[in-house]
């Protein structure tokens, strides 16, 4: 090969690989074109970084996030939405131009076109439902190359992310929602993701959540193991670097107190109005009880439509069941006292207290028979039958009204047969003669008196039981 041929080939090589001499006088585009020429730069190959022992170590990519906007968590979809600026910083030794252009101190800056010329780390959102680049793709991807080869890629994104919420204490719940970033193509041997040491995640000062309050925010660096069984990283297996930042949110209670808890307390209290109505007032008591029950069910169902259908019991459902139980209890109490009111027989109780009155109300017994044999007691409805039986034997019968020696106030009607030595005595309770105490210490009460007695006790028992329920409930939601 002669000298002329060698000179031609050398010129072709020089023309294929432009020189970097005089880079201070080149434009930014010209310098970038020469730095990324195929003869010295391959964008499909990751940057080389020598480790301490001389081997080729992984590329360290430092990340930073700035949150512009965060939408309230949507419980029914288990997701939330953010608008954020994601920034990645790494060093690419192939792009160092400090030595060839010592007078250039400012970085080379560009948009999507500059990014397309460079190798960039492929990082994806692991818990992403959907994401988009904000604005136009050409303007919202900012890339800069510093003289020492430091590359910074900034992207503004809008992302909808999954947040696996625990709603057991809803609406008193606190949620931890994370944004997870993972390397897609390169495992831990080739690329390591790290948070910036100073202010890795920053929230915009004007950021404000309407339904939640931000308690804290923290970052985490970890390694995700992927294998061929879960296809988390496609057909690649290995350990992949991962970053995450988590926000700790607590739900604001103002909306639920004004629109759910206070109205439900008022509805339960309204259901107690029936205790001040007489037991035989069926129409108003049934109307009040059923309308209160239907109103509360409508209130609870409207609130529950915003929640996912989960298998566990939520705190809101405990409140719903408790309030429903009290409203239903007032309806049952009316049915109970109304049944007692319509009874015909008086009852005798040993003592006028809850134990004995309720026992006689549930299992009523007629007036007790006097075991001394001096008197034979009959119910009022047996008067006609008794008189008929006596008259069949003899017409010499007498009807006498006198005072019982064992009671100074209870009138006694006696029927006497001249053929008998012992007269039959029928005891009749005269209206207006109530709470009569017999000589044996038992008290006679009419069905109306029993019904009124139960209503009066219910006026205190139901509110006290509801207060106790509230003490246990609010202690559970705030301290358990």
From TrEMBL:
User: What is its membrane topology?
Assistant: Multi-pass membrane protein
Q: Where in the cell is it found?
A: Cell membrane
Q: Which residues form the Neurotransmitter-gated ion-channel ligand-binding domain?
A: 29-253
Q: Which GO terms describe its molecular function?
A: chloride channel activity; extracellular ligand-gated monoatomic ion channel activity; ligand-gated monoatomic anion channel activity; transmembrane signaling receptor activity
Occurrences of domain Neurotransmitter-gated ion-channel transmembrane (ranges): 261-474
Q: Which InterPro entries match?
A: GABAA/Glycine_rcpt (IPR006028), Neur_chan_lig-bd (IPR006202), Neur_chan_lig-bd_sf (IPR036734), Neur_channel (IPR006201), Neuro-gated_channel_TM_sf (IPR036719), Neuro_actylchol_rec (IPR038050), Neurotrans-gated_channel_TM (IPR006029), Neurotransmitter_ion_chnl_CS (IPR018000)
Q: What are the entry keywords? A: Cell membrane, Glycoprotein, Ion channel, Ion transport, Ligand-gated ion channel, Membrane, Signal, Transmembrane, Transmembrane helix, Transport
Determine the domain of life of the protein's source: Eukaryota
Q: Which SUPFAM superfamilies match?
A: Neurotransmitter-gated ion-channel transmembrane pore, Nicotinic receptor ligand binding domain-like
Q: Which family does it belong to?
A: Belongs to the ligand-gated ion channel (TC 1.A.9) family.
Q: What is this protein called?
A: pH-sensitive chloride channel 2
